Amino acid sequence: MATAAGAGPLAGLKVLELGQLIAGPFAAKTLADFGAEVIKIEAPPDPKRPGTAGGDPLRTWRLLKDGTSVWWQVQSRNKRSLALDLKDPEAQEIVRRLAPHLDAKAETLRLEKREADDHQGVSVMPGAAELLKAIPPGRWCVVTSGTRYLATARLQLGNLPMPKVLVSADDVSKGKPHPEPYLMGAKLLGVNPAECLVVEDAPAGIRAAHAGGMKAIGITSTYRAAELQEADAVVQKLGQIKVGELRGGSGLAIEVE
């Protein structure tokens, strides 16, 4: 179903879509189909990393046609796109002008709390608790594209140990696939990046790890194995990752089954 621009029951409604991949774009596409004006905000290419593409990762997700994901073509119908680096004060001002009646910070906090309070369908990945228990405290950290509030709420909900180091979207200026989040995690742990191993469920995270000089294990929870082939190893379950301590406590030995 698609509605001509300016027509439909939601005509006159303006929607700023700042989400990526599935949930946010799908919801905004549905609103656009019913006549809402949807403006999608996407990150521009990173000038410090020539050759890398900007935009929503959905643009290159799964099945491609002429270099673009067919999912993207469906999810982006009836929308307009705008490339803005939301870490840039000038870009933030543009967003404020697009919706001057909204308090962006208050809206973000409200949505963040709603997501953290929504426990439906949220469960601990099998093997997660056992894997963390096998790693000595202070030798692992969490690096997430979510906020600190949301990450903390999810760990508490799953009754998982709270890491000594947690790097969230609040702490960095560049998110994955840029290596900044993982490099910050290594720095706060006091570990050489080359001695770090990342467990990731997304291609962007695997690229971030490699860009930071780290090894990466991909797990097929969100993406299929074929889409995680950039990883140094791919597992279907966290239980396939075995951790042991080297003699003298000089390091950890990792075995992938």
Give a written overview of the molecule.
The chain contains eight helices and twelve strands. It has a three-stranded parallel sheet, with helices on one face. The radius of gyration is 20 Å and the shape is globular. The chain folds into two domains: 14-102, Crotonobetainyl-coa:carnitine coa-transferase, domain 1 (Rossmann fold, 3-Layer(aba) Sandwich); 128-256, HAD superfamily/HAD-like (Rossmann fold). The protein is an alpha/beta fold. Strand 11 (241-245) and strand 12 form a beta hairpin.
- Kindly report the average pLDDT value: 88
Largest sheet: 3 strands, parallel
Task: Provide the CATH top-level class of the largest domain.
Answer: Alpha Beta
Element order: H for helix, E for strand: EHEEEHEHHHEHEHEHEEEE
Question: What's the shape?
Answer: globular
Question: What's this, in brief?
Answer:
This protein is α/β, with parallel strands linked by helices and 257 residues long. The chain has 8 helices and 12 strands.
From the structure above, extract its key features.
257 residues, Rossmann fold, 2 domains, 8 helices, globular
